Amino acid sequence: MYVKGKARLDKRTKNIVTRLRKNEIAIISHDDIDEVAANSLIDIRPSAIVNTEPSITGRYPAKGVYKILKAGIPVLDEVGEEIFENVKEGNHIEIRMDKVFLGSNCIAKGQELILDDVEKKLKIASENIKEELDNFVDNTLEYAKKEKEILLGNINVPYLETNMLNRHVLVIVRGSSYKEDLKAINSYIKEEDPAIIAVDGGADAALEFGIKPDVIVGDMDSVSDEALKSGAELIVHAYSDGNAPGLERLQELGVDSKVFSMPGTSEDMAMILAWEHGASLIVAVGTHSNMIDFLEKGRKGMASTFLVRLKVGSILVDARGVSQLYKQSLHTKYLIQLLVAALIPIAIILWISPSTQPFFRLIALQIKLLFNI
């Protein structure tokens, strides 16, 4: 590998993508790169990615780096944290084989990943998944006992100006399939006009598709200032002890907000808000709903999500995968059949209409003359 370019660096991938530009080199610290992070990097098309951590450990099937390599973006792995001390934002660096150079100085050395390496790790991960599943289930059940207040309803839900009573509510999370799902349900959004709850970066995902959020919830660490100033109601997710790390940012921006304290994830909180405010249906886009999703988020269990799904399950519809039902185009023969079916009544109307009968008689006469009938 030989790559050179301007360096952008951040230990949090979701932060670096806001500054990274095409053909620059991304320096990150992200073990087991998830698909959401991978997609965000692929969309930008950096010339290379340098990771201080193993991009896939083999602990579980994290397919992010596989997607990155398939997209043609080279990855230099496990270069060590010292690179964050040796490289400044905007420095021009070079990657030669498995080494990183700043000027003539070699500042880091790693392992260039190839698809064969990643495929071997994915195979190992498939063998390790049983142990991970055992740990995941044990953790989920342990914390479900502690967080059962979610199911019992013993939580103080903040008042919302947005009316959700007997309405559909669309919860948007910037998960791995949010683009496909939003495209697939575009007609539903236009026809039903649901209330929109965006979870953190899901607000920017919504705006990307021309959808204005009514409510934005979360710890506000992955949502843009533009989205926060869009006029949506802002609900800051606080820990069980009442501490709300995202509140300070909103105060600095000078926007009004409310605090909602409950255990679990911000998307769990969004569903509880919709449920408690009388939603008739909750449609979830991009939400995390399986073990791999949660392992990619760094969570060892899904107690709160399990409990919330039990509570709201009767009105919850997951839009993930909806795009698979609609992505295939109609076969040509079906289009021809539809066209013929549409033309038959038109032809009949034209044939029996007094105003068009002379025209058809003239056509018939021309045919008889042409073929001497």
From TrEMBL:
GO terms for molecular function: ATP binding; kinase activity; thiamine diphosphokinase activity. InterPro entries: Put_SteA-like, SteA-like_C, TPK_catalytic, TPK_catalytic_sf. Keywords: ATP-binding, Kinase, Membrane, Nucleotide-binding, Transferase, Transmembrane, Transmembrane helix. One of its GO terms (biological process) is thiamine diphosphate biosynthetic process. Residues 320-371 form the SteA-like C-terminal domain. The keyword Transit peptide does not apply. Gene3D superfamilies: Thiamin pyrophosphokinase, catalytic domain (3.40.50.10240). The keyword Transcription does not apply. It holds the Pfam family TPK_catalytic. SUPFAM superfamilies: Thiamin pyrophosphokinase, catalytic domain. The chain crosses the membrane at residues 334-352. Residues 191-230 form the Thiamin pyrophosphokinase catalytic domain. This is Uncharacterized protein.
